[in-house]
Amino acid sequence: MRRARTLSVDTRGATLVEFALIAPVLLMMLLGMFELGYNFYMQAQLQGAVQRAARSSTVQASSGNTDAIDDRVTAAVRAIVPNATMTFSRRAYASFGDVDREEDYTDVDDDGACNNGEPFEDANGNGVWDDDRGQLTGGGARDAILYTVQVSYPRAFAAAQMVGLSPSFTSEAVTVLRNQPWDAQTVHSSVLNCA
Questions:
Q1: End-to-end alpha-carbon separation of the chain, Å?
Q2: What is the mean pLDDT of residues 158-181?
Q3: What's the Cα-to-Cα distance from 87 to each of 43, 77, 102, 139, 172, rounded to whole Å?
Q4: Are the beta carbons of 144 and 99 closer than 8 angstroms?
Q5: Tally of domains in the chain
């Protein structure tokens, strides 16, 4: 009985047991903060690289040189994440107000869709009605360009997978700039009928 009473008041080793209970949670929190910081840093670098590349894309000298501009963004991202995969997209619009807007159409039958021969404005010149009026090009003089870069890379720390997150992280940077006025703006708009 006396020995049991002695053990109940003996606190030697309690700190070690408490640390063993808290350490996994603390470690997961630290790794999570490192992962979050790494992803924020990568996003900031990507946004900066996309802004520089987009600005380079707006001058006439680079109008046909989009691969070299994309290569600069790739180099900036891969300096931080060597095994990142990237996709690039450019859409040209006549004005900033047209960005991410569908082509205008007259909804004769009030069904909310462009169909049954209803007239529409073919703003991008491809002959069909689109829910995005932009052209998949670098555009011409005075066009507003939507430049999008999507980056995917493996997570830096395995702790994210332990809590159920995907093994890779995907980030996107988007910017819209207007091309320099080196020439008259080309208009591709015509009126056609929906299918």
A1: 93
A2: 82
A3: 15, 12, 23, 19, 9
A4: yes
A5: 1
Residue 174, strand partner residues: 148
Question: In the prediction, which pLDDT does 27 show?
Answer: 85
Concatenated DSSP letters of 134-160: -BSS---TT-EEEEEEEEEEE-S-THH
In a domain? residue 4: no
Output phi, psi for 72, to 5 deg.
-65, -40
Q: Give the pTM.
A: 0.73
Q: Distances from the Cα of 137 to the Cαs of 31, 92, 190, in angstroms?
A: 41, 6, 18
The pLDDT assigned to 62 comes to 59
Structure tokens belonging to residue 38? 């790494």
pLDDT attached to residue 12: 74
Q: How far apart are CA 38 and CA 80, in angstroms?
A: 10
Nearest to 112 by CA among 129, 95, 93, 136: 129
Report if residue 124 sits inside a domain: yes
**Neighbour-count burial of 61, counting CB atoms closer than 10 A to its CB (0-12 exposed, 13-18 middle, 19+ buried):** exposed
Residue 39: how many other CB atoms lie within 10 Å: 16
- Tell me the residue type at 23: A
pLDDT band at 150 (very low <50, low <70, confident <90, very high): very high
Give a yes or no: residue 6 inside a domain. no
Q: Please tell me the distance from the alpha carbon of residue 123 to that of residue 190, in angstroms, as a whole number.
A: 7
Q: Domain for residue 2, yes or no?
A: no
Residue 188 domain boundaries: 13-193
